[in-house]
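Teaching assistant here, posting this on the class forum so everyone can see the example we discussed in section. The complex has three components, and the goal was to see what a joint structure prediction looks like when all of them are supplied at once.
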Amino acid sequence: MSTQAVAKAQTARRTKPVRARRIVKEVLFYLVVALILTVVMVPFLWMVSGSFKTTLELQSADVLRPGHEPRFIPREPTLENYIRVNSTVPMLDYFKNSLIISTGTMIVATTLALLAGYAISRFDFPGKRPYVVSVFSTQMLPGILFLIPYFVLFTWINQNFGIRLRDTYPGMIFTYTSFSLPFAMLMLASYIDTIPRELDEQARIDGCSSLGILFRIILPLSMPSIAAVGIYSFIMAWNEILFASVLTGSNTKTVAVGLLDFITTQEARWGGMMAAAVIVSLPVVFLFTLVQRQIIDGLVSGATKG
Amino acid sequence: MLGRKSIVLALVLVLSLGTVTFAQTITFWLMPNAPDAIHVPWLDKHIAIFKEETGIDVKYEIIGWDAAWSRISVALLTGEGVDVFQAGTTWNPQFAATGGVAEIDINEFGGAESFMKANLDSTTYKGKYYGVPWFAETRALFYNKDMFAEAGVEPPNTYDELVEVGKKIVEVFGEGSAIAIAGTNAWDLIHNWAIILWAFGGDLLSPDNKQAVFNEQPGVEAMNWYVDLVRLGLASKASAEYNQPQADAAFISGNVAMAFMGPWNIAGIEVDNPDLNYGIVEPPAGPAGRAAFSGGSNLVILADSPNKEAAKKWIQYLLRPEVLTDYTKNLTHMLPTTYEAYDDPYYNEGVWQTFKKTLSYATAYPPLGVWGDIENAIVGEYKQILSDYVEGKLTDVQRYLDAAAGQVNRALARER
Amino acid sequence: MGQIAPGTPPKIVRRLQRSRIAYLLILPAVVCMLLVHYGPMIWGFMISLRDVNVFTVRDWMNAPWVGLANYAEGFDPAGRLGARFWRSLWNVTYFGIVTISLSYIIGMAVAHVLNRPFFGRTLVRGLVLLPYVTPDSVAYSVWRFIFQARIGLVNKWLLALGLIEEPLIWLVGSRSIYAVMTAAIWKGWPFNALVLLAGLQSIPKELYEAAVVDGASGWARFRYITLPSLAPVTRTLILMSILWNFNAFNQFHVMLGRDPGLHADVPSTLIMREAFQSFNFGVGSAMSFALMAFTLVFTIIYLRMLQPREDRRGRK
């Protein structure tokens, strides 16, 4: 109360310069926001602009020839690239595949990571240190090395257990879950570390079991990190190329691999690829804009303030 | 032994089940040889006809070239995933060397005499056949007739003439306007140099394939000739960073007067710049005459495939003259690999005559298991040459070629 | 020990019992990783001790045993492969130091901006994710176009500003690594911002309010509240960035091709060519494990560097 009063008194004394300074600050702030957006958007706008250009215009531009400089506004705008997106490459099917695989990965990976992250953060079990080190060590080898043994493994599972994993949604979700787990669990563990342990102990005194603590205390408090880790898993599955190009087939081909179909070794349909990229990027951005408002703004501020 | 056993097994399977209700299915991988919009209907139609005739269903998948390499490699090494697939001619021997590819009795596909020699050579490994040639491609010299007329020059017959012609074009149209060449980002950089190397009288390896010889005098001259294109301003300095489609686009857009391109580019010109007034001539001659690179694709059967007989039938179907000609002529704008297909009068006209003639003396690379190493070594040093030239640090190309030769010789020592 | 009442089981057994729930919690993750990571790692290690090449790879179990010869080849600075490998280690280290630190700094700055309520924040937060959600293949293709000498934006703007006389060749030679760095930072910082933003929101507002009362400056609040609070998250974030960095592949492959050239070759592209293009899996695996050892050393150095600071904080 007293501090507020002091502040009020101060404002009363120096209203004018403070307001002016605040306006300058505000303007500067929005300039910074604009700068951030520009940096983000320039390559993306370049991509959007490319999607409306003819292949000829894209590739015959020249910074040194007046009248041919590359520019954002297409010289002969065309919708051809968008019209042909689905006829050249069945992008909409790939989009569906990617959506299913990425969402599945997000859910499974985040769940497993939360369980493991909680264990790592809150329990001092024998073998914890070697376990964490081994989780790290899996991230130190280039993915390319895993490709062949991984394929052998899928074949082996198919032959011995009759579970088909290659070119199926569960197989791809399993793959990507494993890929995103190391980072996801360690990230969550370090986030849970920042949640005061007193809260756990309080709950335990109130008669909560370990799982109860996880779901009643840790889960709601970890929402920002769960959102970040969820997005990470989603995007990892959305963007992965190397394994997707080998393990997916006609049933499960993903967008990231499908986009590469626009570049064959013989011609490069840049315009088409840009158009496809725009089409597949926008829904994802839209989705996250929606989701994060709910997750981050809603749940978290409610949980922390409540 | 094992091969025969599995053939018998497959036969038994086919005999016991095939005739009743069992519909056999084979998996076929191919690359985007034509735009999907026309490629897919063509495949669907012919698979239906094939199924009608044989009862065998073909499940196909069109895979981009980059992904195709890794998927085929994995299939070869694990022995499953596909029955029959398309492989680039330069890939075939390396695949065969792994033992993951089924040996082929070429007589079942019309005999060795019915195929163009260079393409047939690309299917061999240690004198045996491991694939069947499907379609061929070769690069010829495309030139812009309007630009040539304005500069008052004629298409060059020799590499020396090409430089002279190029200088005149540059006088009229400015630096970098004479020829479009690919640079460090091109996956097929080696093909561009090989044809010059051969025309200058050199070769990649000694006749017994035991030693690298591309670092001898003709190799140095050929490399200098290529670098000179940039040094003399005939090609843009920026082409050092081009990949092949970018180089092609420079020509197709009408900004550059010459380019070495293949038959598939004709379709590209029709789509992107139908007004381009261009002609095609054979690649120029060097001191040792003309030379061309024979590329294309072969059809290959997986060694561990349980459906080898069905796969063979599918290959036989695809090679039927009417099917093959339709596929190459109307769909992919590639060239057929069987002599018979060239009876079609279509190949005696216009640009196709040029390609047909060029293909008649085109050469394939030596069929070696360690080809991957060889290509990596040569392309690596090649890129270093271009990179150092751009930075003004290029002194003597001999040094780079010697380094590449050393690596190639080490790889050759491992060849079995 | 003496304090334990008679009848209690030994400490280790008690610990194991108490940890049962912990083991159950990590079990699903362990199974997943066992199949996908640990199994293949063992396979890779076995391969690295044998002469597995194009001729032997299909029957790799019977490939000739060569001991550490593959490692020797990969590490011999006088040999072609060894020289290239050392160079690629240097390239990727340099690349990593620049991209990780800049991505983190930019990410931190943007996270602060986005943590403040302002008009259109939700939209901006969504848009900021754009570089991150754009598939690598597309993003780096676009950047390749932006850096092209004659048709690219970079040279267009540099020429317009009068900073250069003639177009620079960005994607060939010694400049190429900077082009890739720029693209990688553009792609990398939004993720840093996302994670740090999540971290910022976990810091109790009361801490800042108390600091304001104490008259702490903005910098002091950042230095003594924000940074320490973000320390655990930062540690994991940077650590993972380091690990991923050493395996960087897509950005180099897409922007510079299969062989990025001496100045920008990184271990992954080198291993890819050696193992997958030439089928020299033995040497490829050996280089992979050598890379792993290198990464490990680097990681330990990083953790050591953090150690004293944490001790200091612990003592306070």
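For the discussion questions: Residues 312-316 of chain C have pLDDT under 50 and may be disordered. The two ends of chain C are 30 Å apart (CA to CA). Think about how each of these relates to the inputs above.
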